[in-house]
Amino acid sequence: MKANKYPFLTAFLTFFFLHLSTVASNTPVYWQQALDYKIDIALDDEKKELSGSVIIKYSNKSLDTLNYIYFHIYPNAFKNYQTAFSKQLLVNLRTDFWFSNASQKGWIDGLNFKVNQKDAGFQINDTFIDIGKLILNEPLLPNQSIEISTPFHVKLPFCFSRLGYSDSTFQITQWYPKPAVYDKDGWHAVPYLDQGEFYSEFGNYLVNITAKSNYSIASTGNLIAQKVQADYTTRTFEEKNIHDFAWFASSKFLVKKDSFLIGASQKISEVYYPTDLLEYSNWREANKYLNRSTAFYSKHIGNYPYRKVAAVKGSLKAGEGMEYPTITVVTDDSYDELLDEIITHEVGHNWFYGMLGSNERKYTWMDEGLNSLYELKYMNEYYGNYVHEFGRFAKYIFGLDHLKRQDLFYYLYQYMSANRRDQALNINADEFTYANYAIMNYGKTALGLMQLEHSLGKELFENKMKNYFREWQFKHPQPADFEMYFNDSNKQDWFFRDLLNTTKTFDYSVYRVHKNSITLKNKGEIPAPTELHIQYNDRTIDTIKIDGFFGKKTWNLPREIQTATIDPNRITIDINRQNHFYNRHALFRKPIKYRILPGVPDPKYHYVYLSPTIGANGNDGFMLGTALYNNLFTPHKLNWILNPMFGLDSKSLVGNASAGLNLYNKQKVNFQASINLKRHAYRYFTNSFSNGEEHLFYNKMGGRFSVNFKSGKEVKSTDHSFYFTNNHIWLEEDFYENNALIVKPYYYQINELGYKRSKIGALFSYHLESKINQREANVNIQAECNLKFKYAPKGYFNWRLYGAAYVYREANTIIGVALSNNTAAGGYQPHDYAFDETFLQRNNALQNTFLAHQVALNEGGFRSFINLGIAENYLFSSNLEIKYQKSLLYYLLLSCFWDFMLYNNIKTPQLAAEGGISLVILKDILEVHFPILITNNIMDDHLKGATKEKIVQRLTFTLNLRNFNPHKDLNVLNRL
After folding, report:
1. Residue 968 DSSP one-character state
2. DSSP 8-state code for residue 162
3. Beta bridge partners of 772
4. Band of pLDDT at residue 148, cut at 50, 70 and 90
5. DSSP symbols for 352-391
6. 385 neighbors 450 (Cβ within 8 angstroms)
């Protein structure tokens, strides 16, 4: 035996390799299941049905023994109202499926599973009928395979989402029994959802599709054979390494084909679109868009491996387009650039999640966000970085010439975040609100990835993306796998720890500038990297790369600073760009810029908008003026507006002004506090005399403090708020004394303390409000309940209950709660004494004009024009309204109403009732009412003497200008 000359080295190497083998044995080995499909299917276009069979070779590549296999049977999602799909539509305020008829429903049946040609049990899930469980006759051991087969029949639904029929096409997607994914985390059997896509296993497909010969078939994969029998043609399609198979059929398709190269490999592009409508002419360029986008993604990520790429014009309710392996369906093609953008986005899904098969139901950002980044890159390369689709006129008139394409994502994200309605990205697709599903997964992720790319450098980022794609192509990467490539030494934790998993923000501001030093402050919660651009007084420029930091940080610079700009190219997702710019020579840190019309602000300027305004009412006549304000679309803490106007009839300066301060908390409790100060000055009363006219004016100044909360789950939330208002009103009163008309000032103050609670639902909504109202020594309590029931696709039923009672009321005052809040006798006192409503004609003397017949549907809520309808102690009313949004002359809608009331007048309880019809001209804004059946007390009070014969005297109208504002559509985002 030879002696060992190196015993220490031998011992060390022995220990090292033993340790290495132990570590290797504990390292998880990646695996995924393998599937091979053979499907035979026939389309019955008259019955709108599919009939066929599927054979699946299922290979267990896992380390586990399987006793059952979960299946997706997604057509059952359209079977009834209890499915997850149906319930989610209601959460997202869609009722088209809920009100569909039996013939529009869909399902899958005729299943008779066999495993290795032996009968096998199949159990449909009790909760989700679009999930089934195949019970295996024998355990499926690791590295073993079985053959699964079943016939199946699909009753196609109307196209409510992705699968179904429309007027001219059949969309055959998620249509066959498909095994759920089984991976290291177990089974991923999830129900079909409209908001939330799919996680499917890769496999090889051979599909025979039989349809009438006059039908064109747009399909996943390659056509390898076709056989004609009588009036039917069977086409055979094949594709490998894909996770789904979709096809579309129509007798009206125009088919265009083209070829192009990816490297040395020739590819085919196919376009299918209807020929019967002229607006599809922009599809003539669709092959170019397919070729170009496929080449673009291949260049920047990795080569497209399939032989064909296709696009089809079809029906779709789940977005503007939807991706499937090698084929995409597009529904919105309003103009050429948009068609290119949608085709590019859907083609890009062949990479994310087509070849990089992430779990999109659980990590939507890994598909939609990554893809949106490359869609932005594509659009910037071929259409420019700045937004052009607004048109040249709008671009310059509204100051959009500086607006970059990604800014559209940014401002939506900023709005949601500023209002504390944003959500973290690493949550399940169905946990997002309807608005946030797009704004966060598409927009916020793309913006964050742009910043990540800028932080790493474009070349390094692209190399990492190519390596990530090369490693995980045809596999199921998780967020941790993506992070491994992009978070070296945890330097990008701001993205992977904070941006993905929280709603934290970063907000760098220029805090202080001295001659040659600058201090920045991070007012946010994320230490993300950014960039500082310095221009010195000698016109030289420095760019400083800044690592993320908290608090404040100061830089001493070699020369005197003239301007400083944080993130000059607007790359980062900093929540507030308005504090990014500093000019030492500007009066207010940066120059003031004036604009005629509102637009999206450039953060280099303080903006003051000057917009011409025009108005009219029956007291001041036409009013001309100017509105000065600082904000319309983007969120500010302080918003203000000054709107002086000149009344051409009153020959007086009138108008209004307001300022609002919004305060948001940064804690888990979601609330928003706001303080608003307002001032109004208008003429409210006009009377004619033989020797001229009398004009009376009012001034109103007040404030409102409110705290708004949102409770409950994000997608099923309830908004509620507390508020306090204080208003001061100065009036001119007139009265006769010694046969002389005397006008003197009159002042009073109104205080209100109230609580509101509301919830918006697809079938049922409610709004509750209670308040205490005090004017001088008069105190009353009021409560209101508004219920809305939807009973038909375009019909709903409103029921309003209202009650008011005086806790204390001074004697000999005419103040009270109005049965009908209108502009009747007394002008200001009995009706709308707080001047909350926008009445066009505050004048009883001119009741013969239609403007004087305006009513406001609050307090008693009667539509009749009641002069003396004042409840002195209490009032209880019930207002019912049935609306059916069936178009009359296309835009005008009819509704019916019934109003009932119990009130006291001169200490005598009285009943009043009315019923009639309303003509809806602008929904929730302008309606004309015609009371037909009214009780005698209303008749005697309203239609006295000869006027009873004048039907036109019964007509009234409501004008709710508070529902007509530029923020209305944005406010909807807060509720969805």
Report:
1. H
2. S
3. 753, 781
4. very high
5. IIIIB---TTT-TIIIIIHHHHHHHHHHHHHH-SB--TT-
6. no
pLDDT in tens, 884-936: 766 554 456 778 999 998 887 666 788 889 999 998 888 778 899 999 888 88
3-state per-residue secondary structure call for 784-815: EEEEEEEEECCEEEEEEEEEEEEEECCCCCCC
Q: Could you give the CA distance from residue 628 to residue 639 in angstroms, rounded to a whole number?
A: 11
Phi, psi of 454 (to 5 degrees): -65, -35
Integer Cα distance of 68 and 134 in angstroms: 5
* Alpha carbons 326 and 304: distance in angstroms, whole number: 10
Cα separation, 126 vs 324, in Å, equals: 29
Tell me the C-alpha distance between 348 and 327, whole Å: 11
Q: What is the DSSP string of 20-70?
A: HHHHHHHSPPP---EEEEEEEEEEETTTTEEEEEEEEEEE--SSS-EEEEE
Question: Bridge partners of 876?
Answer: 803, 902
CA distance 784 to 800: 7
Per-residue pLDDT tens over the stretch 3-42: 444 333 333 333 333 343 334 444 568 999 999 999 999 9
Chain-centroid distance of CA 934 in Å reads 44
User: What pLDDT digit, counting tens, does each position of 374-410 carry?
Assistant: 999 999 999 887 765 555 566 666 667 778 889 989 9
* Tokens of residue 845, six digits: 């003397």
| Calpha distance 404→451 (Å, rounded) | 15
- The CB density around residue 141, as the number of other CB atoms within 10 Å, is 10
Of all helices (H) and strands (E), which one includes residue 291? helix 286-300
Question: Helix 458-472 crosses helix 445-456 at what angle (to 10 degrees)?
Answer: 120
8 A C-beta contact, residue 756 and residue 720: yes
543: tokens are 């760019």
- Compute the distance between CA of residue 643 and CA of residue 632 in angstroms, rounded to an integer: 14
pTM of the model: 0.88
Nearby residues of 387 by Cβ (< 8 Å), 6 or more positions away: 395, 400, 403, 404, 405, 407, 408
- CA pair distance 637, 645, nearest whole angstrom: 26
- For residue 588, give the 3-state DSSP assignment: coil
Are 646 and 626 a contacting pair, CB within 8 Å? no
Helix or strand holding residue 327 (H, E)? strand 327-330
Residue that has been written with the tokens 């980044």 in this structure: 373
Report the side by side order of strands in the sheet with 541-546.
Answer: 541-546, 530-536, 561-566, 581-583
